[in-house]
Amino acid sequence: MKKEHFKSSLLIVLSLLLVVSCTDLEIEESDSSIADSETEFTGIEQPGPFLENLYSGDLKGIVENQQDLYALNEVTSDELLVPTRGTDWGDNGIWRKLHEHTWDDQHPYVLNNWNNLNQLVFRASQIIDERTTSASDAERASAQFIRAYAMFWVMDMYGQAPFRTPGDGPEVDPMVMTRAEAFDFILNDLNAALPNLPTRGPSSENLRPTKAAANFLLAKLYLNKHIYLGTGTPAAADMTQVVQLVDAVTADGYALQSGYFDIFKPDVDTETIFFTISSVGNRMWNGLHYNQGTPDNTGGGWNGWSTLAEFYDLFEGDPNINTPGSGQEERRGFVPLSGSPLPAGMDPDEFDEDNDGILDGSNIGFGFLIGQQYDLDGSPLTDRPGNPLAFEKQFPGLAGNNERTGIRTIKYHPTNGEFAGHQIIFRYADAHLMKAEAIFRGGSGAGDPIGMVNQLRGLRNASNLGALGEQDLLDERGRELYKEFWRRNDLIRFGKFADAWDLKINTDDFRSLFPIPATALITNPNLSQNPGY
Fold first, then answer.
1. pTM over 0.85
2. Which residues contact 450 (CB under 8 A, 6 or more apart)?
């Protein structure tokens, strides 16, 4: 395999420019980089190991990171926020700016996300390139899928997509696709990949792409097509495409599954279409308190991430309590009053390290944690100053918080592995709701939108809806898919991303796109800044 290195185009010229510039921007090797080979590119000699590294290295890191892709899609929404608690989670305001909608073109997560995704596009292109003659059709199809996935997010989040052909030297500025051109590029990649991807239903092998995964991503494309092409309203033909693509996923054996939080175990289930070996630790511990720990994580949580009261209130049940039997729907979860006895058949050496007969971590709740939290023996937990550890709904602001403000959220659970390497990317319930929405928006196909939504709600122990409007669809997607990367995308499609919500400052429409990072504009003159920035 050719030795690869990553650097910005025209780096030497830029260094000279920056000496006399008044800007404080610092160009680093990874800034806006799209890799180029230090020798003439002649192909990847061992595409199998190279492709494996894209999944176990590049994609894994992108998905498990709590910053960048995840933060930009979740903390910018009404679903999650990261309040500053004393000096904890201050970080020079970078988390607060996301929730406030006050980010700019120098925000580090805007830059890191741009670099990570574009690097993944380029590295996948090296396998797809015709000079990689040793790549099999299946390997090229997998690379086309992963390139489509990475470029999907570039197009979705930035509205334009740079592209460099493997082997282009640093003197060649990457060409830039418009959003419409990037849409077609992604569409072509997925359609080209489909014949050579395996047909596979629920399986432990779904950490690699399948026809179902490609059809799922195609459905996302068509569902949001009117947003990406700027046509204003969805076309009935595009919505019918969504229906047919979801039907193809269903035909491969995927289905809704009861037992909501069981879906997030590292086990085979009927819903998981595509996952990675990314650790779920960030999704689990970044909101739990320091005093909520397990034998494998005695330091406890990191006491940051929380949700808004108005998002929590979307769920059925008494809004002021979430202990078992509070009349809540399953997806809202519960706060246990103590730990649970170790279930029969579970290895005590693995799941009961302190040998007390109690399942380690079973005192930590599922879903939304509000009010008093408890230890394994049922005694009330306290925060570090000694106050009752009772999570509160309201915040004094994005700064000035104590250790207890904010409802915490958790879907992946430490009883299934404190840092288990199994994070879902595509899930069937999402596809099911996409089909319901597509029919609601004029698509043709079998199924009644309200009946489909109520089918899902019935599995989640929620009452039937009597009527179905756009807000109901959006709310249902929030209840089902919280913390799964899609909230920003959904809010934009439903025209709600610029709405006001608690502790948000700006309601600028232009923020449906992130800015092109300042350093990217400097290194590639083919890019242009998005409106408003």
1. yes
2. 465, 467, 468
